[in-house]
């Protein structure tokens, strides 16, 4: 982590690694002839990580980016139903976002089955999905959004990083609250 962003790295198939990050773009000066992720890592001050990454080992065509994401709570849809991450962007510190998307879809199955069997109206189906979503996810999303704001705050970075290094940061508590 740095005040300009953070990265997470995990091993994937074939002995390769996936590097994913969230970065502030302000002040970034891209360089030609190297994967753009290296520019972001340099901007964040992750020089030691750049040294460990061989630019030639980056899989061509595998890099992607998304701009201007908002982790604010979304209002409930009024003219349709969205599930999983189409419904809301899950803050990174929530944990496994794909798992949450599948959980959300699973919660929608019963209301959708009742609608398909003409046992409820579309409006009732939508309201039940929204109700299940709120009941199941609102607490953990609220904690994750707050945690995300705290961990990515430039003003709080030094204090949070220091607490994390000294084992004072309550990782287990936040983990339990986002499950």
Question: Could you explain the architecture of this structure?
Answer:
The protein has 179 residues and is mainly alpha-helical. It has two domains: 5-57, no CATH class; 84-177, no CATH class. The chain has six helices and two strands. It has helices at residues 36-44, 47-52, 97-116, 122-151, 157-165, 171-177, and strands at residues 5-11, 17-23. Helix 3 (97-116) packs antiparallel against helix 4. The longest helix has 30 residues, at 122-151. The protein starts with a strand and ends with a helix.
Structural class: mainly alpha
Number of domains: 2
> Helical residue percent?
40-55%
Number of strands: 2
Strand-residue proportion: 5-15%
Oligomeric status of the shown chains?
A: single chain
Largest sheet: 2 strands, antiparallel
Per the principal axes of the C-alpha atoms, what is the gross shape? globular
Mean pLDDT: 78
Separate helix tally: 6
The ordered string of helix (H) and strand (E) elements is EEHHHHHH
Poorly predicted runs of 5 or more residues: none
Identify the strand order in the major beta sheet. Answer: 1-2
What is the radius of gyration?
20 Å
Terminal-residue CA separation = 23 Å
Structure described in brief:
This protein is mainly alpha-helical and 179 residues long. The chain has helices spanning 36-44, 47-52, 97-116, 122-151, 157-165, 171-177; strands at 5-11, 17-23.
List keywords for this structure.
2 domains; mainly alpha; 6 helices; 179 residues; 2 strands; two-stranded antiparallel ribbon
